Amino acid sequence: MKILLITPFYAPDLGPSAPLFTMLCEKLVRFGYKVSVIAAVPHYPIGTVTKEFRGKLFQREKRNGVDVTRVWVPSLNRSHLGQRFLGFVCYQLLATFAGLKCHYDALIISNPAIESVLPFIVLSVLRKKPAIFSVHDIYPDVGVRLGVFKHKPIIKLVEHMERFCLDRAVYVRVLSKGFRQILRTKGVPDSKLVLIWDWVDTDFIKPLTRTNLFSKNCGLNSSFIIMYAGNIGLSQGLEYVIETAKLLAKEPNISFVFVGDGAGKESLQGMIQSSGLVNVQLIPFQPREVLPMVLASADVSLITLKRGVGTDSVPSKCFSILASGRPIIAAVDKGSDTWNLINQAQCGICIEPENPEALAETILRLYHDKNYRVKLGNNGREYVIQHHSVLVAAQKFHEIFKSIIQ
Predict the structure, then answer these.
(1) Could you point out which of 3, 153, 261, 273 has its C-alpha 20 to 30 Å from the C-alpha of 171?
(2) Burial annotation 190-205 (CB, 10 A radius, 16+ → b, else e)
(3) Strand 300-304 and strand 224-229: pairing?
């Protein structure tokens, strides 16, 4: 069977979906599939295309058995909606053209449709090839909540594009129970919805010693490290973590570390500088090969989301943290999928979002109880191996492909 994946982000690009799709495609190759990918040149999260990928409309390579075509997009400011839209247009036009030269039996196409609707129309609908539409967030809802989509014509346009793909996909892959429920209310038939949780490479990310090359190089070995690692965007509410750092500024052994980049980084830097905080450190996004050491350098890892954001999904970073064997503090809405997962796995402590006092109190609790931290970390590692390995995900996709490819 021949599978074509349409997604803007693929290794060595950063961000949550790139490693997920990379792992999935490479596992499907081991299952005997012939897999092709059409992605943008690496540019996430800051929007700048790295030098080695500039200057060509198309670049092709064989990567661990996967045929990868990367199409040109301009370097852009991801916090500027107009520039991001330009990037979407460039990717869709070139990805569609590249896809016309591909031979495939079925497709996986990632949402949002604002990034992928043209390839969906041409490569699936017009070519009459079955497509799985992989939903990673609910659009336009998430953009409206974050204030990214403010004008009704834009909201309606995004809604119609998403609806087009949802209606014409053979299956819609959702990554949480919450997403499945929302799409049901939007009229997507339950028979079309398939729940496949996000996954993680548990052989790559695993518990390592707290002291390692990354922690040494970044000066993290002399403090109790509270770490946020991931996209520093608009939805995480990291400003409340800075407020927590202020509350704990007199605790000399507790430090806060942010590892990542994104649209919210400049604002975060401004808060740190204006507050004169010395217990907070910002570190740029690290290459994927360093990720196991990054996660191991934390004593406690953070998952934070603004109130009302992400109530129906689980950030993919959660599974990486579980695999690393570190305890989690999750500042998320009560009853959200993340809240329920962490309680089910018994791998961390959940608190209400946007509450610096509660976060400070929880940090102090874990700071003073090493045995509890170890227990939570071990629980998380065991849970992710059983339920969220890439093998489990690939087997579920395999079953779908068997049902749609005759």
Answers:
(1) 153
(2) eeebbebbbbbbbeeb
(3) parallel
